Amino acid sequence: MTSHQAPSHSTLQFLRQEIKRARRKNDRDQDFVDIPSVQPLFTEAAIHQALGECGFLPNHRAIFTPRIQRECFPLFALLVYLEEAWLIKVFLEKDVVALPVEEGRFPYKAELRDGFKNVFLDEQWAFKPHFFHLGRFSRIHRHAIIPIIEKERLNEKDGSFGAISRIAIASSFHDTPHSQETIVARFIRKKIKPREGAEFNFEKERDYLGLLGEVQNPNIVKLLYSYTYRDQNYLIFPQASMDLGEFLRNTEQFGRFAKASTLYTALQGLTSALDDVHNLNLPDKFNGSDFCRIGYHHDIRPANVLVTPDSFLLADFGLSNMKDPAEQKSETEWKFGKGDYFAPECYKGHLAHGDVGRAIDIWALGCMLLEICTYMEDGASELKTFRRSRLSTFRPRWKTGFFFQDDHVKAAVLDRIQHLLAQPDNPALWNLAESIRAMLTIAPTERPSSSRVHLYLMHACTVALFFECRWSMSDFVTEVERHDIIQPSMLGNLELLRLKSWGEVLGLYTMDPEPLHLMERPGSNNRARTTAILNVQATLVRLKERFHDSITRLRNLDRAGDDKQSLATLENELSTYTMEQISSLFDSLPRSLKKKADHRFRECMGSDVVSSSHSYSSLSLAIRSPEVSHTQLDIPEVLEFEDTAPRIREGKRHIETQSMVTTKSETPEEHASNHSSLRSNWYVWDHDINVAIPATLFPRSDEENDRERPHRPSVLEAIGFNNAECPRNSSIEIPADELFSITKGFTIL
């Protein structure tokens, strides 16, 4: 026994009571037994004891006990419940072991009480409720009991062909992942409305959803179960938090959508779903030829987009269809739907339904994106105002909120797009607004394809993530400056330059998604390009989160009192991680773009003398000052430390670097003639740094060429050293904190 101990005098009575406790009612007020919950009670010992109470001989108990456990536990439980457990011997001898038992196979026995057969045949369905197998279609017997224990009709969500309900299925009777965590699991059920062609529509939608399930796009709603019961057809889907219609009515932003990047990631996913609907491609690994179909949705509206805390899912494919790409005619007569997102070509002369193609999905998506942007930027009340501003007479006594009037886009729509473009400091939104403008083109042939729209949204999403990453890095640099730490500030600003250069060549400062298109490497396909861009976005997210985490750690150190050792550890960890991640961003670029990014980085550094083979994993430091010009304080504009070769010498970590120096006033040619390659030694001991600076790096104030111009204090003089006392070929060790103390107010770019 498990949690219950059966009384020694009546195991049968104990089991019968537990079965009664496990009886439940479904939404049709039918009883069923939660068989999996009582099965653990039917141990080998309990069955053996129950058979003994029925008068079975020891040899029969030894034979029947394992068979009952293995083959016919529900049947035996039913007989125990009906107080006729002894009949199990008759059923086993006739090899009738599985429920339900057909009337003709019921084993006759003269000792049976009157009416027992009918009671058995009726009651057996309660011990064999339908089990929902993931992804499987079932044609359920009309007497079967379906373990749906709750049902709520959602009339406002009904579609063109389906009635929608929220249902709960007892967790023991479906295999949806994680179903054991709760007593019930809730789903959305679509009942196909009975009308002419209902069976065909059901099979079409079921098969289409099955094919889309093979694509495994997380932004396409997953068909979990489908079944036919008493001549009615049903589809079951996972329950989402809400649909987009509810989302747009909320006065507060739902889930994680307060973050701009969440919105753009969700929209990117939604456009990927539409692209997979329009261009279904399933590789066949056996014969090498892909299964390709062109499809359409034809019912894109807020009620058919489900919302989770961080994503949008495309749903309701009742009006969808797919065709072989070889078919000459790709257009279809438009079937009337709901909402305000109808495209201009849906009507012929305002009277008849027109032939339409996949471009009506692009128009509808553009309408929906514009409403989403309005809501996210200005709130639910402004969205209501925008909807009212679109109202106009489409036909006599018929006012609509369509986005077009006759042969032009409504002025209210164009004004709204312009309003989004006018938002300050929001390049991702500008990209999205321009994409919407392209989608809301009157001529269907001039609208972008679903693949192009997906590229637009990938570009906008990458822009949003890129700037969030840059802002988090800038916040970290600001936080570091509060702690008076120079090296992480150098690191942060330097890597900001690298990130900026990478973003520029990828077009993230423009509204042109074409550079992202170049992420498609030769011989690859759109899916490979999408994977490359998603990897880039994941890197940006990791960087952003790492800098946010580092800011938190810095503030915790601040509260505990600055600890140099802890700060140095944080610096080293972040330095390595940041350079690795940004290097991976550079490596993700095709060769042509990577060369442009390298060149742009050198331009940003102002170092035209650096060769194209320069490794940017080496430390590069650029110093600018808004207060002191290079003619006032002789500080090198750029120091490049290359070919770092650390080794241990005399108990210290000794790093020798080959240095290149240029000043603002020098051309590359002048630099080559005035300076040879110089060696600079850095000694690191317990995180205190001494910098050995060759005296030749800084002009001496007593040199001939300095006598004809105003005296310029060198760095050495600024910290108390007399250049005249320094031999020309010597080096002077200077504590790093003293060296950098004179650069207060300088910005490390």
Automatic annotation (TrEMBL):
Keywords: Kinase, Transferase. Pfam families: Pkinase. Transmembrane segments: none annotated. Residues 150-457 form the Protein kinase domain. It comes from the Eukaryota. InterPro entries: Kinase-like_dom_sf (IPR011009), Prot_kinase_dom (IPR000719). One of its GO terms (molecular function) is ATP binding. This is Kinase-like domain-containing protein. It comes from Lophiotrema nucula. The lineage of its organism: Eukaryota, Fungi, Dikarya, Ascomycota, Pezizomycotina.
